[in-house]
Amino acid sequence: MERSLRKNFLNAIHGNLVNRIPALSVTQTGTVELMDMTGSAWPEAHSNPEKMAALALAGHEIAGLEAVRYPYCLTVLAETMGCEVNMGTKDIQPSVLSHPFSKGPENLRIPENLLKRGRIPTVLKATEILAARTENGTQIEIPLIAGMEGPLTVFTHLAEVKNCLIWGLKKPDYFKTFMESCTEICIEYANSLFDRGADALCMPDGGLVGSRMMPPSILEDSVKPFYKHLCERVNGPVILHICGDVGDSLRTLSECGFEAISIEEKVSLRVAKEAIGDRARLIGNVSPSRTLLFGTPDTVKAEAKQCLSAGVDILAPGCGIAPRTPLANIRALVEARDEWYEEKE
Ligand SMILES: [Zn+2]
């Protein structure tokens, strides 16, 4: 079983037949328990490639998830482009503190040495470490899922959310210039992750869409073309993760070329499946706070089985796993998937 996890995941993401529906997380997996067990804790694991890799691996080897997911923040590209970042603590993720392009895109340039800046080398090195792992001389077949900011997230980090929204309506040329540059940055970084051995990327990028602050016309006319361009130019499967209640926008988002869309528990799986049809695979959506953080293995299992019965293509938390989530609750995801198949027979 172990050696086929990568193949099984790629089959799932491309909509092919699977042995079993994969149970994993496409969003962050670092928890305090895993940090203590591996000696690889935040904030150090955000900048040290060996620690980043060790903590990611623990999500599979200790928590049982059927993929390795890293890094643990959405600030890598923002920092590379000049945003100040607070690196957080052992149980608080890094966050962006400053928005160097809040006046406009005049001085916005894509650095020539983009891939050598900030913590990009850390994530690339961690990818190499994870991809090179072998057992008895053969490569270990566990899917590597790298997380990265999408173009809209980079835009809001560089310019601040309110400016992004105002320019979408009043300065479409500004909006377009930012989206162009941010998309190119994402494409270059994404392809470097695939070159180093990542199997898929997860791009959490729809906070604005999920919060319903962005008018649907802006999404359709000013964001979708860039998502399409990105999906065409990136050399591997991309999962779009959307925080919040994204229901109404799912059809538009599913027309961009993403292999899969990962949704929160605020969205009904049946509604989501109907909206995206067979244009993308559906990933979700066990509640990371109500159930994984505060529930018990039994409540996790009950909710996970509901997701499977509702037709998810990959069983996963609806958003990043909270750092204080008990290990037993994460393990219950895979156990639930196994029980669900046994109960079906
Ligand atoms: Zn989310």
Descriptive notes:
- With 345 residues, this protein is of the alpha/beta class.
- 47% of the residues lie in helices and 11% in strands.
- It has helices spanning 5-13, 32-38, 49-61, 76-80, 120-131, 151-159, 161-170, 172-196, 207-210, 216-233, 250-254, 269-276, 288-293, 297-310, 327-344; strands at 68-70, 85-86, 95-96, 134-135, 138-139, 144-147, 200-204, 238-242, 260-263, 281-286, 314-317.
- The strands form three sheets. The chain has a seven-stranded parallel beta sheet with strand order 1-6-7-8-9-10-11, with helices on both faces. A two-stranded antiparallel sheet has the order 2-3. It has a two-stranded antiparallel ribbon with strand order 4-5.
- Strand 2 and strand 3 (95-96) form a beta hairpin.
- The protein is globular, with a radius of gyration of 19 Å.
- The model has no long low-confidence stretch (mean pLDDT 95).
- Bound molecules: zinc ion.
Notable features of this structure?
binds zinc ion, 345 residues, alpha/beta, 15 helices, two-stranded antiparallel sheet, 11 strands
Task: Give a brief rundown of this model.
This protein is α/β, with parallel strands linked by helices and 345 residues long. Helices cover 47% and strands 11% of the residues. Strands 1-6-7-8-9-10-11 form a seven-stranded parallel beta sheet, with helices on both faces.
